[in-house]
């Protein structure tokens, strides 16, 4: 938990003082979905004050202006496909700290919000690789939800394997939706695995999933220890570093 808090603080200060200014967009929470067993809340945000464009996999900074929540902003990944025709977007947030727990408990439909972004280079590139392996740890599935939704909308023929690791069965809050996509898209495959210590990540297990490391791309979004393990194993099986994508929160 300490490493996570330090990571978030680094993001915040980089956002405040090391980035080009973004003009905050105003909007409202149109709808809320709760996944109580997973401790996840999905916010559908719209009625924006100006046109807003983003790509699936990116993130932005959210401030809730109502509901009695603290006024500071926090970074969250988009969990919806790239820019929607109706101008709405979705954020899926897990209650894992003081602020996100308060948001989960107090956030209400209709609350006004301020949103700054988009940021990040964690963007899926179709047809870059012969096969793409995506690895999500826990709530790290969030950016992949938007990427998979984008693939579904485009009826993609991209060869993609998504491995989602969680510590509890209840944490697979989007498992049914992802399985429905896997049933429809011939070249999209899915694994949902209970994993508490990264025991399903090793050079051998990664190589079995990518088959041809030199022609494969890897996308990973997970807690820092798991992310480091995945990257270390990927390098060990000769996936080129330029083909390993992880959310570095680059502005």
Topology (elements, then pairings):
Elements: H1 2-17, E1 25-35, E2 40-46, E3 59-64, E4 74-77, E5 89-94, H2 98-106, E6 112-119, E7 131-137, H3 142-153, E8 160-166, H4 175-184, E9 188-194, H5 203-210, E10 216-221, H6 224-236, E11 244-246
Parallel strand pairs: 7-8, 7-10, 8-9, 10-11
Antiparallel strand pairs: 1-2, 1-6, 2-5, 3-4, 3-6
Helix pairs in contact: 5-6
How would you portray this structure in words?
This protein is an alpha/beta fold and 251 residues long. The chain has two domains: 2-119, Translation factors (Elongation Factor Tu (Ef-tu), domain 3, Beta Barrel), CATH 2.40.30; 131-246, Nucleotide-binding domain of ferredoxin-NADP reductase (FNR) module (Rossmann fold, 3-Layer(aba) Sandwich), CATH 3.40.50. 27% of the residues lie in helices and 29% in strands. The chain is built from six helices and eleven strands. It has helices spanning 2-17, 98-106, 142-153, 175-184, 203-210, 224-236; strands spanning 25-35, 40-46, 59-64, 74-77, 89-94, 112-119, 131-137, 160-166, 188-194, 216-221, 244-246. It has a six-stranded antiparallel beta sheet with strand order 4-3-6-1-2-5. Strands 9-8-7-10-11 form a five-stranded parallel beta sheet, with helices on both faces. A hairpin with a 4-residue loop joins strand 1 and strand 2. Helix 5 crosses helix 6. The longest helix has 16 residues, at 2-17. The protein starts with a helix and ends in a 5-residue tail after the last strand.
